[in-house]
Amino acid sequence: MAVLAFAESNWDKDALASRAAVLAGFWAEWCLPSHALEGTLEAAAARYDARLRVGLVDVDREPELAERCGIQGLPTLVLVQSGREVLRRVGLLSVPELLKLLDATLAPG
C-alpha cells in the first residue's frame, strides 16, 4: 500500500472517518529528520496493508491541518482509530521502533 498525502481538504474523510486505523506523519522539507519519515511509513504501510492507512502531511503546505492537530515538533506521528487520536510520537522512530509501537497499539486482525 502506498503512502498517501493527507491535507485539510481530505482529513475528515480519509483519516477521521476511515474504518481502518490511520497513521499520519507530519513533516517539513527543511526538517532533516523528516526526510527519513517516508521510508519508515512505507514499511508500516507494507506490514499492515489494509488494516492501516498511512499518509504524510507537509506542514508548510497544510498549516491549518498542522494547527488543527496541535503539531508542535517535527517529525510527529499521529495514530487515529475510530476518528480519535490514540497515539502521538514526536521525533523520528526507526522502522523496528515504529512497528513495535504499532504492534502494541493496533488490535489484532
Can you give a write-up of this model?
The chain has a five-stranded mixed sheet with strand order 1-3-2-4-5. The model has no long low-confidence stretch (mean pLDDT 94). The two termini are 17 Å apart. The relative contact order is 0.23. It is globular and about 35 Å long. With 109 residues, the chain is an alpha/beta fold. Helix 2 links the parallel strand 2 and strand 3. It has four helices and five strands. It has one domain: Glutaredoxin.
- Please give the share of residues in helix: 25-40%
Strand content: 25-35%
Number of strands: 5
The CATH superfamily is known as Glutaredoxin
- Overall average pLDDT: 94
What's the architecture in CATH terms? 3-Layer(aba) Sandwich
**Biggest sheet features:** 5 strands, mixed
Radius of gyration: 12 Å
Number of domains: 1
Q: Walk across the major sheet and give the strand order.
A: 1-3-2-4-5
* Separation of the first and last Cα atoms: 17 Å
Name of the level-1 CATH class: Alpha Beta
Uncertain residue segments: none
What is CATH's topology name? Glutaredoxin
Query: Helix-strand pattern, N to C?
Result: EHEHEHEEH
Number of alpha- plus pi-helical segments: 4
General shape:
globular
User: What structural class results from the helix and strand content?
Assistant: alpha/beta
